[in-house]
Amino acid sequence: MSQIIEVKVPDIGDFKDVPIIEIAVKPGDTVKAEDALLTLESDKATMDVPSPAAGVVKELKVKVGDRVGEGAVVLTLEAAAAASVSQAAAEAPKPAAPAAPAAAPAPAAAPAAPLPAGSYSGAVDIECEMLVLGAGPGGYSAAFRSADLGMKTVMVERYPTLGGVCLNVGCIPSKALLHVANVIEEASHFADVGVAFDKPTVDLNRLRAHKEKVIGKLTGGLAGMAKARKVDIVRGYGQFLDAYHLEVALTTGSGSELSGEKKVIRFQKAIIAAGSQAVKLPFLPDDPRIVDSTGALELRQVPKRMLVIGGGIIGLEMATVYSALGARIDVVEALEGLMTGADRDAVKVWEKQNLHRFDKVMLKTRTVGVTCRPDGILVKFEGENAPADEQKYDLILSAVGRSPNGKKIGAEKAGVHVTDRGFIPVDKQQRTNVPHIFGIGDIVGQPMLAHKGVHEAHVAAEVAAGQKSFFDATIIPSVAYTEPEVAWVGVTEIDAKASGRKINVAKFPWAASGRAIANGCDYGFTKLIFDEETHRVVGGSIVGPNAGDMIGEIALAIEMGCDAVDIGKTIHPHPTLGESIGMTAEVFEGTCTDLPPMKKK
Ligand code: FAD
């Protein structure tokens, strides 16, 4: 007998109001269990809602653009007799991509049992207690912690330098260039205060060399620390042979060119930290003028006109760099706002400060056609803010998100479950469904941030060493290192509204901060969000220079369960931008003497 079931949005962690960007099915469609039904997009990535069973779609209850949270009914499904599922399972299918911050990770799905040890019976070149696959921030932190805890550790990495995306083509090079951009920007404002600099001339070769030097210092430092800990590095492309063996196709040269040699490593425990890669839009042709973030960081040219596809953090950071170097920028974003996930008031401030960079910010618009010509790249748009004519660009940056590398490591041979999108689900101890194999970093889910991966790495290594560690962080802060910076942590007003949580909001405008006025950034603000009942801080946002350096204090306050009095009565140094956090808590308490008298509560 068939059964009509309501398919609901699964546990997607702290995300409460996530827009639907695509619906893959229509009434009458036949689906298999685990087929993607629709796609949600949080602040930094997309995630699918899978079908809990095989069957026929009866009725759609949502449309593209609707915002949904856990438990929202998205469609009804007539489950096929043989495949029908319990109502409970239908109501809470496992997310295809563990979208929640690791604070609430997807349970480790266990469709496949681990293969018996030794299903591989060939020769073994290296034996170790702990194998770490990938040497990004997750991988090297896991390897170093494992070695510190006494395990004989081997780390496998295909590239010649350690540090993964973050150190080589992500966080660090982008920040080296953003620093330069910020100095250029700041210098340009100095004429207003009587100190004029000439228009900067940019030597791209030297700037590139500076960025490479920054990367070299850090990656070289990592190699030294690996040596000091006796972590063996095997350079090559790793693929599991079974649950206890990894084959490494050795690589050589400056990239990941195969040398033709292979080595087999036998391990007792493993941590998968193979990260993610940029999503490639299928309609973008191969042309050196169309790049992802890695290509943009190579700084091959400064274009006159640049299109950034995707208004998330990575796209906007690179837009800031290229704009400071002299490019005019257009941004196209399918959603209704830039930097989704960030506090909307903070984004408004950022937008106002950045108007000068952009010719067009095309929200609710998509790129639908791209033609490469010798004199430029012609782009057609569709949507609410699409220009009528094709636009011509010298450079296109595609920054539409990153996809995990779960399907590229032979995980199935180890019995490790990988979702359709390539994520590896883990539990709160970072274990996959195969108990001696752990997963960390971008490959296990959102948010794809280095500091989340490092935290998970420590948990995995400690659990593997027999300690009772858990990933039980309440919050994970996010920062857009744009100009000005936008930083946020914990609950936002949109989250609270979506979940019905009762909150109070306090905001301290930097127009009342002596340091902000002195520094020429009195447009910024600090906002704290308090639980209405307990007065404990549950969220916060800062927009302005150094916001990213300051958000850690709010993160600590949330983790420690601080209330407004704890924060307000902590003496902050004066005059600093950081004292705005204490003052915001005083605003909540009605005790702030740096603002006009406040209404009595
Ligand atoms: P990765 O850094 O992706 O490392 C995975 C490693 O595994 C890679 O070195 C890869 O070569 C290796 N590998 C993969 N498969 C194999 C295999 N089969 N065999 C051998 N080796 C393999 N995050 C922040 O927190 N702050 C930022 O400011 C920030 N800025 C960013 C800017 C940009 C432009 C980008 C692209 C990302 C940025 N991120 C930032 C995200 C951050 O870089 C990632 O979250 C982080 O690098 C993930 O770490 P990881 O260890 O999970 O994986």
UniProtKB/TrEMBL annotation:
Its EC number is 1.8.1.4. It catalyses: N(6)-[(R)-dihydrolipoyl]-L-lysyl-[protein] + NAD(+) = N(6)-[(R)-lipoyl]-L-lysyl-[protein] + NADH + H(+). Binds 1 FAD per subunit. Its cofactor is FAD; (R)-lipoate. Residues 4-78 form the Lipoyl-binding domain. Pfam families: Biotin_lipoyl, Pyr_redox_2, Pyr_redox_dim. Keywords: Disulfide bond, FAD, Flavoprotein, Lipoyl, NAD, Oxidoreductase, Redox-active center. NCBIfam families: lipoamide_DH. This is Dihydrolipoyl dehydrogenase. It comes from Niveibacterium microcysteis.
